[in-house]
Design a protein that fits this description.
The chain is of the alpha+beta class. Helix content is 39%, strand content 19%. A 7-stranded antiparallel sheet has the order 4-8-9-1-7-6-5. The chain has a 5-stranded mixed sheet with strand order 12-11-10-13-14. α3 crosses α5, α6 runs antiparallel to α7 and α7 packs across α10. The protein is globular. The C terminus is likely disordered. Keywords: DNA recombination, DNA-binding, Transposition. This is Transposase. It comes from Candidatus Ornithospirochaeta stercoravium. In the C-terminal section; belongs to the transposase 35 family. InterPro entries: Cas12f1-like_TNB, Transposase.
Length: 437
C-alpha cells in the first residue's frame, strides 16, 4: 500500500472513530450474554470455534517465550510458530485463525505487561514474568463489521432464515444465538468477546442504548442496615432475612465419585470431567442469581445502606468454612462496596455486643441468639439488633461527613453516638515509632 493511501485511510478511520466516541457519550453501555447454537454448523465447521481458543493459547505461550525485541517486532501475519508440548518438546504449529484474533492476543499481552510494570512501579518490588497459560477462554472481537456482525430484525431473507444470527470471522456459516430478546430495538452494536464455558461458547456483546430521561422515579424507602452471617446469610434492620447459599447437588457428588474411580486420561475420564465442570457452572449461576436478587431488593430506593467490612476470607478458614463456601457472600459484598450509597463500618466494630442505647454487653456469646441489654432492657433477635446497630453507626458517619450539619457537639449527640465516638477513639492505635531518625 502506498504511503499516501495509507495516510488517507488512517485519517478516515480516525475521523470515524471520533464520531463514534462522540455519539456514544450520549448513550449508555449494555453488555448482554448470548449463547451460540453450534448445532447449525456442519461437521467441518463445528470444531472451528473451539480450535480458535487452542490456537490463541499456542500463540500466547509462543509470544511469552520470546524476548522483548522479538515480541516487539512480531508480525501478526505470521502463520508458522514453534511451541512446546506438555513434555517440553518443540512442535511446529500452523495457525488458521484470522489476523484480528492474533492482534487481540498481542494487545492483551501488552496490557498485562503494562499492568505488571505499573504494579512494580507502585510497590517497588519485582513481580516476575508472565506465566504460560494452560487454557485460553476469551477472544476479543474488537471491530464490529469485520470480526463480527449481527443479522437482527429485518436483515435476513424473506423466510427469516438468517435472523438472530451472528457472523464470526473465520466461520463462513452464520450461527444462531439464544437471548437476543435482551437487546432493545434502538441498540447500537459495538465490540464483543467470545467466551468458552463448560456449557458452550457465549458471545458477550456490548451495545449502546439511548439514555431515557423520563424514567419512572423509584419509590423511596427508609435507610437500612445489613448484617452478614453464616447461619443466616443476610439479615436486615427491617427484620428480613436472605438465604443466598446453594449447596453441592447430589448429582455433583455422584460424578465426583465416578471420576475418582476412572482411569486418568481415558475418554470416560475426560467426559466425566466436562460434566463436573458443567455442574459447577450451574451451581455458580444459581448463587450469582440469588446474590443479584438480594442486592436488588436491598439497594432499590435506598439512600443509605450500612454494612460492616466482614472478614469473609477468614471465615473460610474456620470450622464453618464449607457453609461460607456454599454462599455468595463475597459476590454480594463486592457489589455493595461498589455502590455509592453504601457506608462501610470498621471490621472491629462490636455490632453484636453494642446496644442501640450505646451500652456494650460483653457477656454475650455465640450461642446466645437473643440480645438482652442489662441497662435499658432492650430485647431483640441477635442478628436484627446487629443490623440496627450498624444502621445507627452509618447514620452517625453520614452526619459527621455532611458539611451541612456536623454533629460534633455533645449536646447534639445521642447516647449511641457518644458511645460510638468513644469506641472509635479507643480503637485508634498509636503509630509505630519510625526507625529512621
Amino acid at each position: 500500500m502506498d504511503d499516501q493511501v495509507r495516510i488517507a485511510k488512517n485519517k478516515t478511520i480516525g475521523e470515524s472513530r471520533r464520531k463514534t466516541i462522540l455519539c456514544h457519550t450520549t448513550m449508555r453501555p449494555l453488555v448482554v450474554e448470548l449463547k451460540l447454537d453450534l448445532k447449525c454448523l456442519n461437521k467441518a465447521e463445528l470444531n472451528k470455534p473451539y480450535h480458535f481458543f487452542v490456537e490463541c493459547r499456542w500463540l500466547c505461550n509462543y509470544l511469552i517465550s520470546l524476548d522483548s525485541d522479538s515480541f516487539r517486532n512480531f508480525n501478526t501475519q505470521t502463520r508458522s510458530i514453534t511451541s512446546l508440548d506438555k513434555d517440553g518438546n518443540p512442535v511446529a504449529r500452523e495457525l488458521t485463525m484470522p489476523a484480528k484474533f492474533m492482534q487481540s492476543v498481542c494487545s492483551s499481552l501488552k496490557r498485562d505487561m503494562k499492568a505488571l510494570a505499573a504494579k512494580r512501579k507502585k510497590t517497588g518490588k519485582k513481580n516476575g514474568k508472565l506465566k504460560f497459560r494452560a487454557a485460553y477462554d476469551s477472544i476479543e472481537l474488537n471491530q464490529y463489521g469485520n470480526t463480527h456482525w449481527i443479522c437482527y430484525d429485518d436483515e435476513g431473507d424473506r423466510n427469516g432464515r438468517y435472523r438472530n444470527t451472528v457472523h464470526i470471522a473465520g466461520i463462513k456459516r452464520p450461527i444462531r444465538m439464544f437471548g437476543m430478546d435482551q437487546i432493545p430495538e434502538d441498540a447500537e452494536f459495538a465490540n464483543a468477546k467470545l467466551v468458552k464455558k463448560p456449557s458452550g461458547i457465549y458471545l458477550m456483546l456490548t451495545c449502546y442504548i439511548p439514555k431515557h430521561e423520563g424514567k419512572d422515579k423509584k419509590e423511596a424507602k427508609l435507610d437500612i442496615g445489613i448484617d452478614f452471617g453464616i447461619k443466616t446469610t443476610i439479615t436486615t434492620s427491617e427484620g428480613e432475612k436472605y438465604e443466598i447459599s446453594i449447596r453441592e447437588s447430589e448429582r455433583l457428588k455422584g460424578l465426583q465419585k465416578k471420576f475418582a474411580r476412572q482411569i486418568t486420561g481415558s475418554k470416560g475420564w475426560y467426559d466425566t470431567k466436562r460434566l463436573i465442570q458443567r455442574e459447577y457452572e450451574k451451581i455458580a449461576n444459581k448463587r450469582r442469581a440469588k446474590a443479584n436478587q438480594a442486592y436488588h431488593d436491598i439497594v432499590t430506593g435506598r439512600k443509605l445502606i450500612a454494612m460492616q467490612d466482614e472478614n469473609i476470607k477468614g471465615w473460610h478458614k474456620g470450622f464453618l468454612g464449607r457453609e461460607v463456601q456454599n454462599s455468595a457472600l463475597g459476590t454480594l459484598k463486592r457489589k455493595l462496596q461498589a455502590n455509592p450509597h453504601v457506608i462501610v463500618i470498621d471490621r472491629f466494630f462490636p455490632s453484636t455486643k453494642m446496644c442501640i442505647c450505646g451500652h456494650i454487653n460483653e457477656s454475650i456469646t455465640l450461642s446466645d441468639r437473643v440480645f438482652e441489654c442489662p441497662v435499658c432492657g432492650y430485647t431483640e433477635d441477635r442478628d436484627v439488633k446487629a443490623a440496627k446497630t450498624l444502621l445507627l453507626a452509618g447514620e452517625h458517619e453520614k452526619a459527621c461527613t455532611c458539611l451541612e450539619g456536623i454533629r460534633t457537639p455533645a449536646e447534639r449527640m445521642s447516647d449511641f453516638d457518644v458511645s460510638y465516638e468513644a469506641w472509635k477513639r479507643s480503637a485508634l492505635k498509636p503509630e509505630a515509632p519510625s526507625s529512621k531518625r
